[in-house]
Amino acid sequence: MEKEFNPFLVTHYKDAFHFCDRENETVQLKKNIQNNINTTLFAIRRVGKTGLIHHVFNSFSKNSKVVCIYVDILSSKNLKEFTNLLATVIYNRFPENKNLGKKVIETIKLLRPLISFDELSGSPEITFDLTETKRYEKTIQQLFTFLDQQNIKIVFAIDEFQQILEYPEKNVEALLRTHIQTLKNTNFIFCGSNQKMMNEIFNSAKRPFFASCSNLHLDFITEDKYAAFIEKIFTNFKRKITKESIQYILNFTCCHTFYTQFFCNYLYSNNKKSIHLTDVKQAAIEILKLNENTFFQYRNLLTTSQWQLLSAISKEEKLFKAHSKNFIQKYNLGTSSMVTRGIEALLEKEMIFYNSTIEAPYYQTYDKFLMRWMQNKQ
Ligand SMILES: Nc1ncnc2c1ncn2[C@@H]1O[C@H](COP(=O)(O)OP(=O)(O)OP(=O)(O)O)[C@@H](O)[C@H]1O
Ligand SMILES: [Mg+2]
Fold this sequence. Notes:
Layout: H1 23-34, E1 39-42, H2 49-59, E2 66-72, H3 79-93, H4 99-110, E3 114-117, E4 124-127, H5 133-148, E5 153-159, H6 172-181, E6 186-191, H7 195-203, E7 214-217, H8 223-236, E8 240-241, H9 243-253, H10 257-269, E9 274-275, H11 277-290, H12 292-301, H13 304-316, H14 325-330, H15 336-348, E10 352-355, E11 362-365, H16 368-375
């Protein structure tokens, strides 16, 4: 089984061996946990936020004094669904045969949930059927407080946290902040893929979470670290890959984690023992072809002028001056205000991102394969 497993992961975290770098961020996150500081993990999409959380959690896996709980709340639409997800991950996290596990299960059962089983995974799912929102608020508090009193360290990672802004209940931020403040043994990692919304929650002076967490920014993995990792993995599985091939991949994907993993995964799956630049170039062509349907779907989601602007940004690769005459004229984009509106729409639809954490900020197309595909078009 292990032999057939592709070591370049594109869907989940496995272990430290299959994980590239993030050494400083791991140290920082662990330090925050050890010093009872809550963390907000900021980064653009598909750069490895969720992977980093699992990597840090994995490093605590042998420590019986620390219990790490991960919950992704992207699918939740309101406070009720949030509470159900929270109770479900807690219920599933503690082994029933251990004392604490028994206590957790008893406590949750006291809250009178419906327990069903997920059709695919077969794991239990908790649903509360309460009539009032207030009862859900109370349930969340009871769950947090109960865990906090168990004399162990609890680390809660709430992924896609910006989703709480979509709930019809408008006080969720204040409610969570209030409960969280009272906990002594519990730490939180708040993570989200929508930067604008995450900024709104954590960096707006008027909001409950303002300045309550330590911000950790996740950047692209550096080229030298990623190159060493790619070489290590191929070599470990008895494949040879030339340095120029690795460089081509990292240039093609701009070191954006998901796209780099995907490229290497594809290349690995070709089963060649010795990989040269021609193989890598051929793989790049095939990957773009493979993704063409998705690109056409993107096009249907955009207006003609948004598509044209996206193509212009892709061709620039890094767009430093969105309103320069040169850029607007070169791609025939109309007026400066049309570009402003277009950029807003593309940011909103997460087709592009704004890298503002460096000295010279720029706009870039999110999907690196789409970017390369557009560069090859007229
Ligand atoms: N440091 C790493 N080394 C190797 N693979 C990684 C690393 N970080 C993430 N990955 C892989 O890259 C892919 C994307 O990472 P991940 O899902 O963690 O990104 P994300 O920032 O959480 O994305 P999103 O914004 O969509 O939630 C995953 O398949 C993961 O396995
Ligand atoms: Mg994620």
